[in-house]
Amino acid sequence: MSPLFLALLGATVLGGVLATVDQSFARTTGIVLIVLGGWATSLCLHEFGHAITAYRGGDLSVPAKGYLTLDPRRYTDPVLSIVLPLLFVIAGGIPLPGGAVWINHHALRNRRVESMVSLAGPLTNLVLGMLITAAVQLVPMPQGLSTGLSYLAFLQVIAFVLNILPIPGLDGYGAIEPWLSYRARELGEKARPWAPLVLFLLLFAVPFVGRAFFSLAYLVFGLVGGEPVLALLGQESFRFWEF
């Protein structure tokens, strides 16, 4: 397992400890570490989900590429894969998809496996969101810790909802792509470089689209047991520098 991944995990745990301290600065610092460390950790787990599913599905080149080490440096460019998504979270925006693992689709056994490889990443985010919300619901904890974890869980749900959309360049499209006609896949390939950019512009620039997206995200968050009020409190503490 990558030492860098363990460091990210350690930062998240440290944040959890600080979030329990009855002192405003320490508690806020803890929430920031929970969110940033936890989000970076989840980016690695998202890509690991793609990789391990591909490996079990027939792509035996995955281990040689280092994808099973949970090392964020292996998931394409570290700036685009880790730093840029973190900056978007810090800015209070929608968490961007992270890196990418390059899969040999010709080695995969069938179209069903290809679909599962694409779905494995966003499903990892959904499972993480469910586990975190379950911990908040079932384990008594100070408010600082519960709000920080709730906001982290909400980011996982947002990542799931975003990535599952059937738009070229996102995992949701990757899940249906093997079942499309050759002509449809050809059009999807042409749209892949710019379709996610158009989506992000619509989310930020068109109020109706942004509201619809976040309404769906909050719906899913509630279905997995999340408490929106705690997530909002965690977001406010995380974005303390804006006040």
UniProtKB/TrEMBL annotation:
Positions of transmembrane segments: 79-103, 115-139, 151-170, 191-210
InterPro entries (alphabetical): Metallopeptidase_M50B, Rip2-like
Cofactors, names only: Zn(2+)
Coiled-coil features, chain-numbered ranges: none
Gene Ontology process terms (BP): proteolysis
CDD domains per record: S2P-M50_like_1
Subcellular location as annotated: Cell membrane
Keyword Transmembrane helix: yes
GO MF, any single term: peptidase activity
Family: Belongs to the peptidase M50B family.
Protein name in the entry: Site-2 protease family protein
Source organism: Saccharopolyspora gregorii
